[in-house]
Amino acid sequence: MSAGPVIVLGAGGHAKVVIELLRASGHEVFGVLDADPTPRTVVDAPVIGDDSRLESLKAEGVTHAFIAIGDNGLRLRLGRKAQRAGLELVNAVSPFARVSPSARLGVGIAIMAGAVINAESDIRDLAIINTGAVIDHDGLICEAAHVAPGCALAGDVTVGQRAFLGVGSSVIPGRHIGEDAVVGAGACVVHDIPASALAMGVPARVTGRV
Ligand code: JB2
């Protein structure tokens, strides 16, 4: 399914994965904008400038954008900026992810290979469901949250806006992760985690604020 030419923001590691996902779904990647506009390629896509190009891209026939930046706050801000410039945010969903037909997806979302999103889950704008992560039924992943590779979220888990769940972490059913919270790699969340908390370990304990 092709939605028209896509501009990708960000030229780092995340962008490499995203560009390959977009191509695998039939999208044409027009080019990449990065804070460092030095001409180069990212998995063969050319860096064509920085964000000052955003406003003029519609006139060049670009219709869609994808924000391929891991920083959750920045991704959310740039996503809204691209929308204000008249670009639609496209989703980058691996053909090897399994997304339930009853799941709801926002826009600007990355869902990597091996991810599983089960029934009636709600994945909001600009979230990342990374490689091999599992969101069981009725999950709510809020705007610009990032569920890192290999995470396992049981049913009814909520992840707040811009929160980050580190690689291989897990969450028992029904727990809430507050907005902007960070859960360390391999942690096991058995209690709710407050907003902006840093939580680590098994079971996860709040060790500070981010
Ligand atoms: O305001 C900006 C901006 N700020 C930084 N606009 C644009 N268009 N680009 C910006 N950047 C660029 O984002 C930097 O110049 C850099 O090229 C890129 C970030 O690359 P980096 O490799 O540091 O991180 P990443 O966001 O691609 O990947 C992180 O998040 C992923 C989800 C890493 O932690 C990865 O390991 C992770 N898989």
Sequence-ordered SSE layout with sheet pairings:
Layout: E1 6-9, H1 13-24, E2 29-33, E3 41-42, E4 45-49, E5 64-67, H2 72-84, E6 88-89, E7 92-93, E8 98-99, E9 104-105, E10 110-111, E11 116-117, E12 122-123, E13 128-129, E14 134-135, E15 140-141, E16 146-147, E17 152-153, E18 158-159, E19 164-165, E20 170-171, E21 176-177, E22 182-183, E23 188-189, E24 197-200, E25 205-209
Parallel strand pairs: 1-2, 1-5, 2-4, 5-6, 7-10, 8-11, 9-12, 10-13, 11-14, 12-15, 13-16, 14-17, 15-18, 16-19, 17-20, 18-21, 19-22, 20-23, 22-24
Antiparallel strand pairs: 3-4, 24-25
The protein binds GDP-perosamine.
GDP-perosamine binds at residues 9-15, 33-36, 51, 69-70, 74, 78, 128.
Based on the model shown, name its key terms.
six-stranded mixed β-sheet, binds GDP-perosamine, mainly beta, 210 residues, globular, Rossmann fold, 2 helices, eight-stranded mixed β-sheet, UDP N-Acetylglucosamine Acyltransferase, domain 1
Detailed description of the structure:
- The chain is mainly beta and 210 residues long.
- It has 2 domains: 6-90, Rossmann fold (3-Layer(aba) Sandwich); 93-202, 3 Solenoid (UDP N-Acetylglucosamine Acyltransferase, domain 1), CATH 2.160.10.
- It is 12% helix and 31% strand.
- The strands form 4 sheets. It has an 8-stranded mixed β-sheet with strand order 7-10-13-16-19-22-24-25, covered by helices on one side. Strands 3-4-2-1-5-6 form a 6-stranded mixed β-sheet. Strands 8-11-14-17-20-23 form a 6-stranded parallel β-sheet, with no helix packed on it.
- Helix 2 (72-84) links the parallel strand 5 (64-67) and strand 6.
- The longest helix is centred in the middle third of the chain and has 13 residues, at 72-84.
- It binds GDP-perosamine.
- GDP-perosamine is lined by residues 9-15, 33-36, 51, 69-70, 74, 78, 128.
